[in-house]
Amino acid sequence: MQTLKHIGIIALNTFRESIRDKILYNIGFLAIAMTLFSIVLGEWSVFDRAYVIKSTTLSVMGLSGLLISIFVGISLVQKEIQRRTVLTLLSKPISRASFIVGKYFGLLAVVAVHLTLLTAIYYVMLFLTGSAPTLSLLTAIYLIFCEMAIVIAVALLFSSFSSTVLSALFTLGVYFAGHLSDQLLEQVRFATRMGELNGTSSMVFQKAAEVIHAIFPGLYRYNVTSYVVHGVALPDMYVVWNTVYAVGYIGVFLAIASWWFSRRDFL
Amino acid sequence: MIKIEHLHKTYHSGFLMKPKLALKDVSFTVEPGQVYGFIGPNGAGKSTTIKVLTGLLNFDSGKVLVNGISPRNVKSRQFIGYSPEQPYFYDYLTGRELLKFYGKLVGLSGKELDNRIHWSLELLHADKDWIDRRLRSYSKGMMQRVGIAQAILGKPKLLILDEPMSGLDPMGRRDVREAIMELNRTGVTIFYSSHLLSDVESISHKVAMIVDGKIVREGTVDEITDSCGVEYHVRTREAIPQAELPEGVSPAGHPQECVCADDAARDRLLRYCLDKGIAVERMDHKRPSLEDILTEEIARADA
User: Fold this and answer.
1) In what order do the strands lie in the sheet with B2-13?
2) Interchain CB distance below 8 Å, B57 and A267
3) Is the CB of A24 inside 8 Å of chain B's CB atoms?
4) Which of A13, A129, A201, B136 is deepest in the core (most CB within 10 A)?
5) Domain formed by B2-225, architecture
6) Residues 177-196 of A with CB under 8 A from B
7) Which residue of chain B comes nearest to A21, CA vs CA?
8) Is B73 on the interface with A (CB under 8 A)?
9) Segments making up each domain of chain B, as ranges
10) Does B230-286 carry CATH code 3.30.70?
11) Which of A68-82, A194-208, B201-215 has the lowest mean pLDDT?
12) A133-183: pLDDT as tens digits
C-alpha cells in the first residue's frame, strides 16, 4: 500500500515536471500544426481527402508520442542524477523500483494527455471537414498509446544505466527493430524460398531474424492505421491480446530497469 | 544508532574502471542521543561514508547498521533524515511545494503535513516570504535551510547532515547550530560532517577524523586534543636566565615568559620558581585545536 502511494506521489511530481518542460510544448505545438496541415494535404492529394487527413493525423500522433517518450522520457531519470535531486529522494524510505515505476506512470500520463488533446482536435477537424469521424479511429489511437507505453519503458530501461545520447540512440534502435522485425523475418523467408539464400547462410539469417523477432517488442502490431482508415475490421480480441502483450513487455523492461537502478551508486 | 565495522569502499573510474580505495577499514559507533561530528579534508571519504549510511552507495565489505538495520534495506531510511552537501532540488517548485512533496513521501498528509512544515521552517528561521518563491531564485543559504527542513520533516531519530553550514553566513550558521542543538535536546541523534572545525568543537559530543579514507582519531574533543599533548605558557614576575631553565622549558620570546612542553616540565618549572622565590603571575593551558591536529594528520598522510 505504502509502495503504491510512493509511486503515485512520484508519478504526480513527474507529470508536473514534464508539463513544465519546454520540449513538451514544442512537440505538442508541432503536432497540432501538422494535424491542421493534414487538411491542406488532403486538398492537394490525389487520394481521398478523408483518407489523407485520417492517416496523416494518426501518423502525427505516433510520431509526436515517440518524440515525447524518447526526449522527455530519457531526460527524466538522467536529470535527476545529473542535478543530484536523486540523492534526497532516494534517502527517503522509498525503493528504487518505486522511483522507476513512479517516473514511468508520470510520463505515461503526459503521453495520455497529449494524445487526448490531439484526439479532440482530430475529431473536431474530421467533423468540420465532413470526413466521417468514426469511433473505430479510437482503436488506432489506443494502440498508439500502447505502443508509446512500451517505448517509454524502453527509454527508462536505457536511461537507468547509460547516458542521455546513448539512451536515445538505443531506444530509437529498439523502436525501428520493433517495427521492422516482422518484415525482416518475412524478407529472409522470401529470399530463402526464392533460392537467393541457401545452406548455412540461409539458416544463419533465418535464426538471426527469428531471434530479433522474438526479443524485440513487435511494435508493428500497434500500427493499424490502414485497417481503421479503410474501415476493415480487426481480428477478434486483437486489441485485448496486444494490450496483454504490451503489459508483458512493460513489466519485463521495468523490472530490468529497477534491478539495474538498484545496483547503481549515486555520487 | 550507527554502527560501522571494517567498512571498505572502492570506486571504479575511467574507461578501464581503475579502482580507487575510498574507505579503508572504517569503524566507529554513534550512540543514540549524540551529536557526532565527522571531519576531514576534501576527498577524505566523509560524503562517501554518509552516502553508504543513507543507502545511496553500495560498499565492498564490512558491516553497516543504522538503528540496527542495514542501509541496503529500505526500512533503515524510515528513521533517517538526510541533507546532502549543497542540496539540489526541483527548481520548478517553490520551497513550500518541495516540502509538501517530501512530506508526503515520509507519510505525512493534510493538517499534520502543514503543521510539520511550519515547525521545520520556524526551527530554521526560514518561515519567510521567500519560501513561496520558486527554488531557482534561492541563494545557497536558503537552499541549505530548505535542505535541512526537508530532512527533519519526518521527525527522524537520526539526522545525517553533509556540510550543513557550508554556504551560510554567520547568522545562518548560528541558526543551523541552534537548530541542531534543539533537535538533539529532543532526543534526535545528529551525525554531520563539516569543515568548520570551531563549530564542530563547540557542539559535538564526539568526533571522528577521517584522512585518506581511514579514521585517524575518534573520541570526544577533549580526548582527541589531550592525546596530542599540551603546552603551558608561564609568565613570571621576573625573568629567568635562559641557562637556568629546567629541562623541557624554553623561552617564549618575552623575557618573563616561558613554555613548558608537558606536565613534567611544568612541575619542574614551578618547583624552580618556589625554590628561587620567583612569583608566577599567570599560567595558560594551551592545547592544540582540532584544526592543528587535522593539519598534522594530513601532513602525516601526505608524507
Assistant:
1) B18-30, B2-13, B61-66
2) yes
3) no
4) A13
5) 3-Layer(aba) Sandwich (3.40)
6) none
7) B92
8) no
9) 2-225, 230-286
10) yes
11) A194-208
12) 788 888 999 999 999 999 999 999 998 888 888 999 999 999 999 988 888
